[in-house]
Amino acid sequence: QVQLLESGGGLVQAGGSLRLSCAASGRTFSSYAMGWFRQTPGKEHEFVAAISRSSESTFYADSVLGRFTISRDNAKNTMYLQMNSLKPGDTAVYSCAARQSTSDSHYYTSVSDYDYWGQGTQVTVSS
């Protein structure tokens, strides 16, 4: 099992940047594939980005491709989401998620793929 805690959310103007962090504890972080999702009021979780356990593979939603970068530092038990060129449409609660994986290359894009979730951090982008 693993516990996840997001941080780094806040208010930013359109075009600005923000870096989210997801700190993990409770298990070996390097054995988990990870992902970022976001949610707005009245809407389901939307996939943002995913990364395999060794960072061998990453994958992005079309809406953030080229603007967001997912990364992880297994030595620090931390995953990151670097968000650049932010748009008002990026406003949401961002959550990190984890699932145990035996593959260095496989990533996951569905909510149902993940077993562990953080509490979320609010990102608000003003115009």
Structure overview:
It is built from no helices and eleven strands. By secondary structure, the chain is an all-beta fold. The strands form two sheets. Strands 2, 4, 5, 6, 9, 10 and 11 form a seven-stranded mixed sheet that branches. A four-stranded antiparallel sheet has the order 1-3-8-7, with no helix packed on it. A hairpin with a 6-residue loop joins strand 4 and strand 5 (46-51). The model has no long low-confidence stretch (mean pLDDT 96).
Radius of gyration: 13 Å
How many beta-strand elements?
A: 11
Helix content: under 10%
Low-confidence stretches: none
Q: What structural class do helix, strand and pairing data support?
A: mainly beta
Number of helices: 0
Characterize the biggest β-sheet: 7 strands, mixed
Span of the ends, CA to CA: 40 Å
Secondary-structure element series: EEEEEEEEEEE
Please, what is the average pLDDT?
96
DSSP strand (E) fraction? over 45%
Dominant shape: globular
What would a concise description of this structure say?
The chain is mainly beta. 0% of the residues lie in helices and 50% in strands.
Any chance you could write out the topology, listing elements then pairs?
Blueprint: E1 3-7, E2 10-13, E3 18-25, E4 32-39, E5 46-51, E6 58-60, E7 68-73, E8 78-83, E9 92-100, E10 116-117, E11 121-126
Parallel strand pairs: 2-11
Antiparallel strand pairs: 1-3, 3-8, 4-5, 4-9, 5-6, 7-8, 9-10, 9-11
